[in-house]
């Protein structure tokens, strides 16, 4: 049986399955909390993007936004699928290089790249720097002059789009810490600096309007706004970009209320718009780059927890507590993000009560789900929270000195541990004595 609208199934024992593997068995084999990913679904998502560009005959790069979930194993999957990788820090760059990603297929982001980060990017000859601000241009040119190397740059600009999403995950509006403003002259100034510098190749423009976006209109608007600026630069300097990077942000289903579009739709609209706009400007169609993170790994992952204590407050609510929480999924506390959950060991049973799912941290805000319908829940039941594949592990913390959970991949009927659970030795491994 397929679980309504989610890419998971139920087996004859009434247990939740992911990629054909019984989640209750995974919980007992690896312990909980446990992140589990269906790798074949991740591959399908990668291919949906890549194939659509190919079918439309458009030159493109699909760069996985590794901030969504960075680890050696996942980046090896991206490499196998022919994706590029977007990194935003030395740590993400290091992980991508260690995973064997071709440096030419790495793009580096960041609103405060350090000299060391830029040096590492230049030393490793990565494919492209997404230039974010004037300070960075100064640092980068110093690093390049010293190394006597040239690098491809794309300028990150803010198109002034107000996307319909949580305030903390909007990134494309004017009042943003990211990128150069297109309206106030800063983007023009940055363009001149990059275009005129012998070690910088002004390869194109980048924008990212926000995250968890469910329609294509914002992307179309943003693209048109970029082309307005490109018109000025084309008329003034005969400039035509080699690349337009239109970011990520494609929405996924967390709860039944979310209505994600097929990924192909975003690509088709983007390609259409870029084609029309470049024809109108009479420039060759640039390559289109995109940077999906969540839409590649988000709904392919779930988290398994063991239910512990229960608290009934007459006339108010029932709480159940799990053995993880904001340490493995900060999104509900940070963005009031909503999730759906099911009892993995009792999927077939009718829901008879409404409970709120609390994490185990010493924090009232450590709640994972409010008002979740479940069967009569018992301590020891396994709760699966769905669509936790993006920004779960990558935003995990050791608050309350809780160990980071393990990560398991399933594919072709097999499960494999790809990140081991932290030990208490790991947790104190950086502590030094003061005796
Ligand atoms: C510049 C940039 N690119 C790509 C992404 C990936 O976004 P998402 O995971 O929503 O696809 C983000 C995060 O929002 C971002 O800031
Ligand atoms: N971490 C965010 C999205 C990333 C925003 C990056 N610009 C989330 O969980 O939704």
Molecular structure report:
- It is a single chain.
- Strand 1 and strand 2 form a beta hairpin.
- It is globular, with a radius of gyration of 23 Å.
- 30% of the residues lie in helices and 24% in strands.
- The chain has twelve helices and 21 strands.
- 47% of the residues are buried.
- By secondary structure, the protein is α/β, with parallel strands linked by helices.
- It folds into two domains: 152 residues, Lyase, Ornithine Decarboxylase, Chain A, domain 1 (Beta Barrel); 259 residues, TIM Barrel.
- Strands 4, 14, 15, 16, 17, 18, 19, 20 and 21 form a nine-stranded mixed sheet that branches.
- The site of lysine has 5 residues, from loops.
Characteristics:
single chain, alpha/beta, Lyase, Ornithine Decarboxylase, Chain A, domain 1, nine-stranded mixed sheet, eight-stranded parallel beta barrel, 12 helices, 21 strands, binds pyridoxal-5'-phosphate
In CATH's first tier, which class of the largest domain applies?
Alpha Beta
What about the largest sheet?
9 strands, mixed
Give the DSSP E fraction (strand runs of 2 or more residues). 15-25%
Distinct ligand kinds = pyridoxal-5'-phosphate, lysine
CATH homologous superfamily label of the largest domain: Alanine racemase
For the secondary structure, the number of strands is 21
Mean pLDDT: 96
Shape: globular
Structural class: alpha/beta
Low-confidence stretches: none
CATH topology of the largest domain: the name is: TIM Barrel
The CATH architecture classification of the largest domain is Alpha-Beta Barrel
* Count of domains: 2
Rounded to the nearest angstrom, the radius of gyration is 23 Å
In which range does the helix fraction lie? 25-40%
C-alpha termini separation = 60 Å
Determine the number of helices (DSSP H or I, runs of at least 4 residues): 12
């Amino acid at each position: 049986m397929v679980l309504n609208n989610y890419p998971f199934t139920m087996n004859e024992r009434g247990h939740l399955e992911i990629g054909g593997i019984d989640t209750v068995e995974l919980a007992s084999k690896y312990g909980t909390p446990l992140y589990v990913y269906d790798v074949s679904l991740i591959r399908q998502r990668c291919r949906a993007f890549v194939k659509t560009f190919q079918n439309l005959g458009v030159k493109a790069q699909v760069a996985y936004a590794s901030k969504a979930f960075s680890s050696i194993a996942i980046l090896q999957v991206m490499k196998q699928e022919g994706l590029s990788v977007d990194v935003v820090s030395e740590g993400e760059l290091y992980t991508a290089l260690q995973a064997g990603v071709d440096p030419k297929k790495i793009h580096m982001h960041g609103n405060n790249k350090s000299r060391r980060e830029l040096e590492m990017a230049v030393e490793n000859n990565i494919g492209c720097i997404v230039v974010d601000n004037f300070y960075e241009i100064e640092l980068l040119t110093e690093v390049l002059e010293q190394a006597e190397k040239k690098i491809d740059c794309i300028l990150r600009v803010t198109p002034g789009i107000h996307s319909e999403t949580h305030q903390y995950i909007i990134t494309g509006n004017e009042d943003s810490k990211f990128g150069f403003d297109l309206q106030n002259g800063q983007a023009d100034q940055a363009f001149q600096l990059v275009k005129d510098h012998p070690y910088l190749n002004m390869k194109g423009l980048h924008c990212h309007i926000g995250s968890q976006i469910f329609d294509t209109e914002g992307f179309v608007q943003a693209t048109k706004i970029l082309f307005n600026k490109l018109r000025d630069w084309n008329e003034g300097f005969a400039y035509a970009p080699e690349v337009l990077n239109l970011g990520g942000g494609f929405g996924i289903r967390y709860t039944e209320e979310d209505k994600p579009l097929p990924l192909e739709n975003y690509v088709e609209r983007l390609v259409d718009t870029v084609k029309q706009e470049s024809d109108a400007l009479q420039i060759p169609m640039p390559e289109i780059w995109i940077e999906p993170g969540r839409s590649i790994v988000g709904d392919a992952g779930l988290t398994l927890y063991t239910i512990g204590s229960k608290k009934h407050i007459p006339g108010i609510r029932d709480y159940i507590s799990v053995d993880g929480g904001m340490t493995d999924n900060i999104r509900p506390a940070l963005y009031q993000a909503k999730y759906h959950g099911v009892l993995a060991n009792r999927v077939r049973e009718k829901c008879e009560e409404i409970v709120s799912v609390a994490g185990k941290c010493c924090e009232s805000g450590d709640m994972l789900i409010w008002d979740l319908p479940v069967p009569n829940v018992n301590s020891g039941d396994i709760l699966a929270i769905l669509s936790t594949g993006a920004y779960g592990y990558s935003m995990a913390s050791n608050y309350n000195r809780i160990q980071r959970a393990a990560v398991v991949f399933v594919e072709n009927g097999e499960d494999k541990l790809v990140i081991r659970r932290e030990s208490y030795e790991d947790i104190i491994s950086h502590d030094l004595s003061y005796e």
